Amino acid sequence: MWQELWVALALMLIIEGLIPFLSPSLMRQALITMAQTNDRNMRIGGLLSMIFGLIVLYAVK
């Protein structure tokens, strides 16, 4: 189980590093937009992201 957790963490870091590597200006603009977003919308986005992740995980398993 620990090996799978480390693989998942490594893949997350690789995927999250793609946008700043390929387009730093896009990443900067995304961070500015996120900083200006209110808490409610940020929470909704986080919830939708978690639900989508659970659906993908369920489909893969």
If you had to describe this structure to a student in words, what would you say it looks like?
With 61 residues, the chain is mainly alpha-helical. It is 92% helix and 0% strand. The chain has one domain (2-60). It is built from three helices and no strands. Helix 1 crosses helix 2. It is flat.
Give a quick precis of the structure:
The protein is mainly α and 61 residues long. The protein contains three helices and no strands.
Q: Structural class, from secondary structure content?
A: mainly alpha
The proportion of residues in beta strands is under 5%
The biggest beta sheet reads:
none
Order of helices and strands: HHH
Number of helices: 3
Mean pLDDT: 94
> What helical percentage do the residues reach?
over 70%
Let me know the number of strands. Answer: 0
**Total separate domains:** 1
Radius of gyration: 14 Å
For this entry, give a set of tags.
single chain, mainly alpha, flat
What is this structure's SSE topology?
Blueprint (H helix, E strand, L loop, with lengths): L1 H21 L1 H13 L2 H22 L1
